[in-house]
Amino acid sequence: MAAVLALGLTGCASLTTSATEIGGVRMADDRPVRDGGTLTVAFKSDPDKLDPSLGSTLVGRSVFAAMCQKLYDTDADNRIRPQLASGMPEVSDGGRKVVIRIRGGARFSDGTPLDAKAVETSLRRHRDLPESARASELEPVEKVEAVGDDKVELRLKEPYEPLLGALADRSGMVMSPRALKKYGKDFATHPSCVGPFRFKERVTGDRIVLEKDPNYYAASRVHLRRIVYRTIIDGNVRLANLRSGDAQISDQTAPLEVQSALTDDTLQLFNSPTLGYQGLTVNIGNAHGLGKKPGKVDGALARDKRIREAFALSLDRRLINKIVFQGMYDTACGPVAPSSELGTKARCPGRDLAGARRLLREAGEKGRVPVELTISNTVEDMRLGQVVQAMAKDAGFQVKLRPTEFTTLLEHADKGDFEAVSVGWSGRLDPAGNVDAFAGTLGSENRSGISDERIDSLIADGRRTADPGERRDIYRDVTRAINDQYALIYLYRQRNYVVATDDVAGLRVYGDGLIRVENAGYAEGRSR
User: Fold this and answer.
1) Alpha-carbon distance 441 to 130, whole Å?
2) How distant is the alpha carbon of residue 442 from its chain centre?
3) Residue 278 contacts by C-beta under 8 Å, 6 or more apart in sequence?
4) Please, are residues 505 and 480 in contact by the beta-carbon 8 Å criterion?
5) At what angle do helices 317-325 and 379-395 cross, to 10 degrees?
6) I need a surface site. Which of 30, 88, 376, 404 has the fewest CB within 10 A?
7) What are φ and ψ of residue 353, in 5° steps?
């Protein structure tokens, strides 16, 4: 452990800072905003495809928040409210019939009117597109049909409680049917939705540019002329860009940069609890890629559950939080955040080197067990990988790090080209959004290739059960069942730390971690 402690102390300003010591939660800035100007947002990683059916990154969701509205959205209190829908859904037939009325007077960025048929087209695409990452979320939807111009009727195979939460995220994003027909599989390079901003250009790995959309139904409330999203992997460089004026917002700010920002009166900090988790995904059956039937994969971790359990027991979540994140995050040992309505507080297991070594002996392992860990090439993620590497070595593992640019990492993970990968999830209001796609046998985000009848059965129970107390028990049980497979090793929950220059006003950062810029701009009396 000496190596771990030495690594953790190098360059740390403090190992005693905690999330509660940085001040109260601040999610919004309501100062008056002037019209005009360009806002530059510095991202930690490059967004993946700008296609709501295919996207799977948090930074991508922040771009979508500016240009692709959904049927429903969440507010600062984690409540669901209508966005492109004109009201909450009408549910009947024992939960099997759902009717959604559509907002009138809205247009897509290409000028096409929003109507029920456009909603039907997008929902069908989310559900049926072979490579769709939304397929698991909408699988229970048996039929989608436009009824007139302003109403969509959904028929479900059975009652499906997570539906509203899914429609408050990418599954509820509506795309221009004209653009879908014109560009087809290339929609991601010509995205067109309803939103305050419209797509202008993208230079992969460098920038995404959006401009104010004059077709937006609430364009008069949009202040900015343009938004530029820049990919700047290094957190210190992102912060330097804020101080130099080359950027105005830094997303996913690491604890060390947060501490630095707090000493600078030209910067402001937004922070909120997260609904998601971060951890390690182990490939135990992803032989053919996402959405395909699980198969046999190579590697010690896939070969024997006891080896996976030993690997998990070698890790100390509290020390990882302390060394890598200065104690400013929370430990995690399950997919559902304790702060969510259906979450339960759980005591995470501690490190057990003796138990880990015993399991390796029982599995017949005599030498060091080789493990390849694919990890994002950011400074903070590399630091996490080095700590995991040092901790696992104490138990008898030899971890080789495979640093990879984040979107490339996801491509490898989707194809099953990994042994273990460090990846997380930004979280959803309904716990099914953190569980079903990742742990269901044919889940659209099931990168581990996990396939377990009990997990699948509990997922089905959670979908059709309405009583909150019963659902809480179900997700407690499914968490135990997932943990028992050691294919998903949950480690920590981030807080959403966003730093902005002090002249930025109207910004919103909620529990979903998205940077909302619809009403953002520069404070009145401040020039830019």
Assistant:
1) 16
2) 19
3) 332, 422, 423, 424, 425, 490, 491, 492, 493, 494
4) no
5) 150
6) 30
7) -65, -40
Please name which of 234, 212, 211, 210 lies closest in space to residue 221, comparing C-alpha atoms.
212
Q: How distant, in Å, are the alpha carbons of 98, 251, 275 from that of 518?
A: 29, 16, 22
Give the pTM. Answer: 0.82
> How far apart are alpha carbons 260 and 350 in whole angstroms?
31
DSSP result, 150-189? SEEEEEESS--TTHHHHHTTGGGB-B-HHHHHHHGGGGGG
Strand, helix or coil for residue 52: coil
Rounded Cα distance, 253 and 497, in Å? 5
341-376, pLDDT tens digit by residue? Answer: 888 777 898 999 999 999 999 999 989 999 999 999
For residue 117, CA distances in Å to 122, 146, 178 come to: 9, 5, 12
User: Token pair of 41, please?
Assistant: 């947002």
Confidence of residue 527 (pLDDT cuts 50, 70, 90): low
User: What torsion do the CA atoms of 515, 23, 273, 403 make, to the nearest 10 degrees?
Assistant: 70
DSSP, collapsed to helix, strand or coil, labels residue 138 as: helix
* Identity of the amino acid at 493: R
Dist CA 324 CA 114 (whole Å): 47
Say whether 450 sits in a helix, a strand or coil.
Answer: coil
In one-letter notation, the amino acid at residue 382 is M
